[in-house]
Specification:
- By secondary structure, this protein is α/β, with parallel strands linked by helices.
- It has three domains: 199 residues, FAD/NAD(P)-binding domain (3-Layer(bba) Sandwich); 144 residues, FAD/NAD(P)-binding domain (3-Layer(bba) Sandwich), CATH 3.50.50; 57 residues, Arc Repressor Mutant, subunit A (Orthogonal Bundle).
- Helices cover 31% and strands 21% of the residues.
- It is built from 14 helices and 22 strands.
- It has a five-stranded parallel beta sheet. A five-stranded parallel beta sheet has the order 9-16-10-11-12. A three-stranded antiparallel beta sheet has the order 4-5-6.
- Strand 1, helix 1 and strand 2 form a beta-alpha-beta unit.
- The longest helix has 20 residues.
- The chain is globular, with a radius of gyration of 23 Å.
- About 2% of the residues have low confidence.
Length: 474
């Protein structure tokens, strides 16, 4: 009897879940590895069961899609086709296809190394014949004076607090930055009882008219935006476009922000600053793909995202990628990519070429949504001259407490021309997060391209785990 092939899916968001279900339905044994206590990812982040949320669907849209994914996962787990490992933080994926031992051949071509437990110190290894990277994305953070005050959170962080813990980050909030995430965050906070004093968007809505052809091809997305706008109007949330937060103020914690208008070049208009009292600022400037595991495996990147072909395959044999890791585009795009990846993996592990007709509808959705979000990205970008508002004493790298003045000195006086040289001269990016948070800011201040930094591991690892003898069981 032929042994069933095994797939490790890293990430249980829309892409990972959809791929796992598609592959499992076609006979693949799937291990779904995720750091969260429940499936769903950030988009479908679930409230902790012990909180007893009576209407969790009120915190989400596309709830019926989530129910289908949730119920499908439960059915496959019950049938033994999927193993769902929660609380597993993957730090490295090891290719074993080059080894020649019979034991490695029997266990699979890849070893997925994770950390388990409250302290993330218990090592666990999952062996598989193929790997799908559905690692999602993370928020792009840009500094400004006062951004380190308690009460200043990322837009996604505010959403996670609300969805996962039923917690409001404050009573009076300003939601600011750039991008479509601001709308659901503002609506979510207002619906949960917070006063949203302002929604501050740096983009110029008039630029959307230049993308009318692309946007018109997605009436469902336009309807979704209209629903958010109606909710904001119902809660009397004031929207300020072509504006930005230039500073946060407070003694000990956030008390107010200064909002100013932007001119056509993305510069702050002198004399337009207005102080808005608040105890919470939820700020975001878009998202970036998580590519650490892909880079460590040697996968090629396309800009800052993992490069894939029409089947969501990377250029590393046996490795697929789907969702935000291949480019930011939301849950629907992630699900389309996940389905294509799941079908491709099931066929390829069976030594077959997947028929394009099997994923034709998903491919059509993928193409349209990629075009849609490419158009949105051209409009919803951070202000072009945001660095001009960063004062010299503004902390840029919070881990190492590196101010903007040190970065500017490294560039202007010491001749640094790239992020790596700035890091060596200032320690910016050498801290716990390894530059994941401050990387875009350092690149902006250094006036150099924003490029991913290849790291050996995707997260900090205890030395005791690294010191284990090669081949020692986990």
């Amino acid at each position: 009897m032929t042994e069933r092939r095994r797939l490790a899916v890293i990430g249980a968001g829309p892409a990972g879940l959809t791929a796992a279900l598609a592959a499992a339905a076609r006979g693949v044994l799937v291990t779904l590895v995720d750091s969260a206590p429940q499936a769903g990812g950030q988009f479908y982040r679930q409230t902790a069961p012990e909180l007893g949320a009576r209407r969790p669907q009120a915190l989400h849209h596309q709830w019926r899609t989530w129910e289908r994914l949730r119920d499908g996962l439960a059915a496959h787990i019950g049938a033994g086709r999927v193993t769902h490992l929660t609380g597993h933080h993957v730090w490295f994926v090891e290719r074993q296809s080059g080894t020649s031992t019979a034991d490695d051949t029997a266990r699979g071509s890849f070893a997925v190394h994770a950390l388990l437990g409250p302290e993330q110190e218990e090592p666990v290894t999952v062996h598989a014949d193929a790997v799908l990277l559905a690692t999602g994305g993370y928020e792009k953070v840009l500094p400004f004076p006062g951004w380190t005050l308690p009460g200043v959170v990322t837009a996604g962080g505010a959403q996670a607090m609300l969805k996962g813990g039923l917690v409001l980050p404050g009573r009076t909030a300003v939601v600011a930055g750039a991008g479509p995430l601001l709308l659901p965050v503002a609506v979510g906070l207002a619906s949960a009882g917070a006063k949203v004093a302002a929604l501050v968007e740096s983009a110029d809505p008039r630029n959307l008219a230049r993308q009318a052809r692309v946007l018109a091809a997605h009436p469902a997305k336009l309807a979704e935006g209209a629903r958010y706008a109606a909710e904001l109007a119902r809660h009397r949330v004031r929207a300020q476009v072509r504006s930005t937060v230039v500073a946060a103020h407070g003694t000990g914690r956030l008390e107010a922000v200064t909002v100013a208008s932007l001119d056509g070049d993305g510069r702050v208009r002198p004399g337009t600053g207005r102080r808005v009292p608040c105890d919470t600022l939820a700020v975001g400037h878009g998202m970036l793909p998580h590519t650490d595991l892909a880079e460590a495996l040697g996968c090629r990147l396309d800009g800052v995202a993992v490069a894939v072909d029409d089947e969501q395959r990377t250029d590393v044999p046996g490795v697929w990628a789907a969702g935000e890791a291949t480019g930011i585009g939301g849950a629907a795009l992630a699900s389309a990519e996940g389905r294509i990846a799941g079908l491709s993996i099931a066929a390829r592990l069976d030594s077959r070429t997947p028929g394009r007709s099997s994923y034709a509808s998903a491919a059509k959705a993928r193409a349209g949504l990629r075009e849609f979000f490419a158009a949105v990205d051209t409009v919803c970008a951070p202000p072009a001259h945001w660095t001009e508002q960063v004062t010299d004493d503004t902390v840029v790298c919070r881990c190492e407490e590196v101010p903007a003045s040190a970065i500017r000195e490294a560039v202007d006086e010491l001749g640094a021309g790239d992020v790596r040289t700035v890091k060596l001269l200032t320690r910016a990016g050498m801290g716990w997060c390894q530059g994941r948070m401050c990387g875009p800011a350092v690149a902006g201040l250094a006036r150099c391209p924003e490029t991913p930094s290849r790291r050996p591991f995707a997260r900090p690892v205890p030395l005791g785990v690294l010191a284990r003898e090669p081949g020692e069981p986990s």
